[in-house]
Amino acid sequence: MVKTSTNTGCTRAGFSLLRFGNGELGSSTAVGVFAGYKLKRNNFSIKLDANLMLINTEFKGFGQTERDEKMRFKTTPGIGYTIGRFGAEADYDLAGDWAGVSLYYVLNK
Questions:
Q1: For the chain, what percent of residues have pLDDT higher than 70?
Q2: What's the pLDDT band for 27 if we cut at 50, 70, 90?
Q3: For residue 81, what pLDDT is reported?
Q4: What residues contact residue 4 under an 8 Å CB cut-off, 6+ apart?
Q5: 67 and 58 in contact (C-beta within 8 Å)?
Q6: Cβ 90 vs Cβ 78: under 8 Å
Q7: 92 contact partners, CB below 8 Å, separation of at least 6
Q8: Ranges assigned E (strand) in the chain
Q9: DSSP output for 10-24
């Protein structure tokens, strides 16, 4: 028996909430929406998302605190692996601000 691979593509959209750091030097929080495309072959996938993020940053130092808030457009390519309804995805912001790993559960299949 020969097993054939299947290629499936889909558009995707969602909501993002990211939190970075929480130490003595400060922290950042990013809230936003994304839309993109994902191409899946068997359990592996590649994706490209476009994100619109509101990024709040707090810097602490020398007894002072400074806050900054910016709206940013981010492009994040990534790779993923899925087993059943569970998956993992690694992505990278092309602007170089962050790289991340996401674990997720697929609600509909």
A1: 91
A2: confident
A3: 93
A4: none
A5: yes
A6: yes
A7: 76, 77, 78, 98, 99, 100
A8: 7-23, 26-41, 44-61, 64-83, 86-92, 99-105
A9: EEEEEEEEEEEEEET
Sign of CA dihedral 31, 36, 39, 40: positive
How confident is the model at residue 109, as a pLDDT?
62
pTM equals 0.72
Q: Where are the domains of the chain?
A: 7-82
Q: Which of the four pLDDT bands, split at 50, 70 and 90, describes residue 64?
A: confident
End-to-end CA distance of the chain: 26
**Distance between CA 89 and CA 80 in Å, rounded?**
4
Locate 54 and state its tokens.
């509101």
